[in-house]
Each structure stands twice: as C-alpha cells, then as structure tokens.
Predict the structure.
Amino acid sequence: MLMIRPSFDTLYEALLARDASYDGRMFVCVSSTGIFCRLTCPARKPKPENCTFRETVAECIEAGFRPCKRCRPTTPEASADPVVKPLIEALEKRPGYRWGEPDLVCLGFDPSTVRRAFKRHFGMTFLEMARQRRLQEGFSSLAGGGRVIDAQITAGFESPSAFRDAFAKILGQSPGAFSARPLLFSDWLTTPLGPMIAVTDHTQLHLLEFLDRKAFPAEFRKLQTFAKGEVGFGRTEVTDQIQAELDDFFAGKGSVFETKLALHGSPFTRDVWRELLKIPAGQTRSYSDVAAALGRPNAVRAVARANGANQIALVVPCHRVLGADGSLTGYGGGLWRKQRLIELEGSYRQASAIP
C-alpha cells in the first residue's frame, strides 16, 4: 500500500482542514451526493455520516461514485500548483541551464518547499528534473545527427566525461557506443509523467520506458543484443506515431494505441502482455485474474514476473494490474505514476459509461 491507513477521525479532520499532505493519496466519497473528491476540495464539507474514505480513484469509481467537477480528482493537479507551474515554465525557457538552489531563492521560492512539491507530483525534485531536461537537449542533438561534443555543449555539461557518465547512467552505454548505421532508432519522448525513451524501427515499437526506471539500462542492453549492436539515435514514422498517441492519451482524447508492437519475450511472457492489452482503460485486474484468463490459474507469480518485465510501458498496460486486495503493487515506473495513470484512466471509464 502507499501509506498506513489513518483512522476515520483523522481523515475527516484532514478533510475539514483541506490537508494537502493527503492529496492524491486519499479520497472522500460522499453518499448524499454520489460524488468523490480530493480532501483539499473547496466545496462545502459533508457530514461525517455521509463520508467514506478510499485510497485510489479506481476504488471510488468501482464503488459507484462520480468525480467532483470542482476539484477534478481524476486529473493530476501539478499544473495548478503555484510552486510547480512557474518553475516548469522557467525550465522550458532555459532547458540547458544548470539550475541550483540559489536560482530558486532568487525566484522567490523556498528550496525545501519546491523539493516537496515536485516529489509529491512527479516523484523527483526540480533539480533532478532540470538535469533530465539538460540530457534531453543533448539526446535531441544526437538524434538530429549532431556530434557528441555538440550534444555535450547543448546539454550544458562542461566536461565530456561528465556528459558521457550522465548518459551512460541512463542508457547503460556512452553516446559513442551507439551505431552510426542503426537498425533500431532511439529517441526521447515527452509526457506529463516524465520523459520516456522510445526505440523503433520503420514498422514497430520495440521499447517504450520511463527514463528513470532502474531496469531501463538492462532492457536497453537486451535490445542491443537483439539488434547485434545496431541501435542508434534518431526518429522514425513509428516514433512520431507513438508520440502523437501519447499526447492524445494524456489530453483525454483517446485511450487506444494503434502503433504496431514488437514483443520481445518468451511465449508465456508475450501471452501475458497480450492479455494486458485486452484490459480497457479505466478498468483494472488482479494478477490472479490475468492468470485465470490465460487458463493458468496457478501461475500467479509467473504472471507477476511477466508483468514486471514489460518493456512497452503505458501501451502494454501493466499499470492496470493491482494486488489481490486492490492495492497498488510494485511498478517499475514508480507507484506515484501508477496511481496517476489509474486516476487519468478513470475519466475514460466515465466517458464510456455515458450513453
């Protein structure tokens, strides 16, 4: 679970106080209105006898409650945060700048407040995000055919070794180790949940993963082996297609991905991934549900391993699989992302329910 569940009295007091520390981690369902809200909702507070508290948006929706139109509990709130929004805008204006805490102070922000806000919304600090943004600039330069030294300067790294080390920490190899005549092309994609790397050929998507996932370097090395070392930088029409589909997904315009997928894994692992593809947005399954659907009810642990080995995040929706008790369980991209995705997809379920 994401947190130890507080008592009803504690949660009701947090609701009355609009305690932001519970935001995104606990929701109130109001029986008298049939609506569920964030604990920070500005609406008039309900009587305690009309309240129940649930830990996820999925639980609220499954219990028959509708999302509040004022506090919008099914959408991330980062864009409305008075700390986050101006700093994101400042970062986009100066993506190659080496941000530090003195810069935050000069802009009128308390570094500790900024740190907590970005951790709460994105699972990383502003300075970590800024460092990733600098690397993105370097990656884009390389994908566009630029030299390593040009990419290093664009990314704001003073020394070649620092750039190589930062790059290798993410991808498991330095920029110079990438193929100049690739069979597979890797490029950086942007999403509201953080940057992702897509690896494609001219017909299929081979890998889509969040940049900060710990298993990413190992996944990338497997593709290097598959392509006999011929993985390089660049975009294909498939890269453009998956970026457009991700943009629509996060904008609430569509939950169906039509990009063709290359599934690298054992026959059983691929069967699990194909079963995940059948789960509609806004719905969830347990590991035992997936095992039963495959006709392998005793293979729950094997299903969990296959789920965790997924190399095409979001599109193959491993985030839609929960624990047997409905809790959020391990997710390579971070539990905070898993919860955000389930929250977002709740809006797709609501839309599909409208006649």
Q: What stands out?
A: The CA atoms of residues 128 and 331 lie 20 Å apart. Residues 178-355 form a domain with the Arc Repressor Mutant, subunit A fold (CATH 1.10.10.10). The longest strand covers residues 184-189.
